Amino acid sequence: METQVFQVALIFGAAFAAGMINSVAGGGTLVSFPTLLWLGRDPIIANATNAIALWPGSLAGMLGFRRELAGSRRWMILLGAPSFAGGLVGAVLLLFTPSETFSAIVPYLILFATLLFMAGEPINRWLRRSKGESADSNIEPGRAWWVGAAAFQFFVAVYGGYFGAGIGIMMLAALSLLGLSDIHQMNGLKNFFALAINGVAAAYFIWSGAVRWDDAIVMAAGAIAGGYGGAGLARKLGRRFVRRAVIAIGLAMALSLLLRR
After folding, report:
1. Which element (helix H / strand E) includes 102?
2. What is the pLDDT along the chain (261 residues), one digit of tens a residue?
């Protein structure tokens, strides 16, 4: 009984931290997902459960930038389709991967996601310098750019449906190369595409019975509480502190999981 209470408290705490981190910096998956692994959950079930529990955060993020999405319908349609398709492909690939195989590659996925997260701040600074956060117009991409962007978005979505951490950085970079200049519009589109990717993956995980609902409910409650109530604490600690904490946790988790093999 005490062990069960401890696990529930730990899962809630990890999800609370993930919700808090996502509200100011992103990268909360690097806290919540490894926690489930440390509690002995099957890695595939843990990944699917984590995706379900944190999915509401993508919806909240998109709604937060709904004004910036007002003139982005063309982008949403053209890149939304490969987002849905890739997310479903990634989710199917995950459930077709043997648990032993996925367990073996998880440390490398966490390390890769952590490195992407580390690159996020320099990429955002570059985006702001090269495009200008307050620019009035976007560069119109040609047909070849659209085809390349759709293909890139599909593969990002496959990774997102399969694992997911770090896809925001990839999408921001791609949108910049396509000529978008408004960082707020780019964040809104990023959150919309993440919602599509995570939504279709979550639906497939639910349909396949790959979700551990007792964990998912506790995590969802923790993530919501962290996103709302924890944001103030995170802001007091500072964005830089939170980012450094996420990076440290991600690297530590990747290293510890590698040493456990």
Report:
1. helix 99-131
2. 667 888 888 999 888 888 777 665 566 777 888 888 888 888 889 888 988 887 776 666 666 666 766 767 777 788 888 999 999 999 999 889 887 887 788 778 777 777 766 776 676 666 556 555 444 444 455 566 677 778 888 988 888 888 877 677 677 767 766 666 666 677 678 778 888 888 898 899 999 888 899 899 998 888 888 776 655 665 566 667 766 776 776 777 677 667 655
Q: What is the pTM of this model?
A: 0.72
Q: Where are the alpha helices (DSSP H) in 132-180?
A: 143-162, 167-177
Buried b (16+ CB within 10 A) or exposed e, 26-48: bbbbbbbbbbbbeeebbbbbbbb
Domains of the chain by residue range = 2-260
